[in-house]
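Hi, here's the filled form for the chain we discussed.

Project: internal
Contact: R.S.
Residues: 343
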Amino acid sequence: MDRRDFLCSALTPIVLAAGSTLVRNRPGRTPYIMTVTGPVTPDDLGFTLPHEHVLVDFIGAERVSPGRYDRREVFDVARPHLERLRSLGGQALFECTPAYLGRDPLLLRELSEATGVRIVTNTGHYGARNNQHLPSHTFTESAEQVAARWIREFEEGIDGTGIRPGFIKIGVDGQALSDIHRKLIRAAALTHLDTGLTIAAHTGPAVAAFDQIEVLREEGVAPSAWVWVHAQGESDTAAHVRAAEMGAWISFDGVRLESIDRHVALVRTMKEHDLLHRVLLSHDAGWYHVGEPGGGTFRPFDTLFTSFIPAIRDAGLTDEEIHLLTVQNPAEAFMIRVRQGNA
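And the returned structure, exactly as it came back:
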């Protein structure tokens, strides 16, 4: 039995051909992670960066289009950074650019096949930055109608490509949830209950984080199905501890050279509270900036390897704990399964 046959028989009855029906992950089925080249087992994911970008276009939802860039040029710019990641031991990357902000699953598949890095794309809408990246239908449709769009991408693939999302990416602004952002988290909750996809929410400050957890619980979704993206944007570490104790994933994803000390302190606080098993680490790096000559400045995906891991090791973390943060936690956070109640 070759690898393709194994995945089809062992993960779930998933037919990998474009346009085929995807059977949802029901209780008793083996959890899996959906990459742009197909499903993998959680154990196969490896060292993972759970929040990065390859390409972003900030032009706005009504004007964004693949015609605004040369896909071959983007490929040539991004490929060396993914090859560098692979050479350092990185095996997987979650590409967090949502629809209407420059998501390009075909580009991601080409890059994954060329570099050997497993890449995961997403479904969902991004309401941060004052809603300028939300398509017009988001304002008029119900949460159920918005969720139906996202569920359809999971079942049928994105825009006729056959490439399926492996998680839900939404974005909210940092204050108390507005009505439109409350709709987004409700739609994400409904999508999760139907598909088992994890919700990664651009959030930042705690007020929006706990508002989202409240909405999820109202919809019967456990906090363990939700990732607090950009949690380092909240200065009160007690909020990180509280959310993690509720079961949420705490993503410290702005790792860069100038943030090393701050991120080490955040990780140490979570260790002191025995909560390393709820922490995710990434750079929020990249990316090809559509509209800038040559894509502008592409920040590499390497600081975690070259500077941050040595720093947390010096701060007392063991190799086992580093493996937990970089391999086990991303696989646990993003494996596709429905998480209801307080699970």
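Let me know if anything looks off before we file it.
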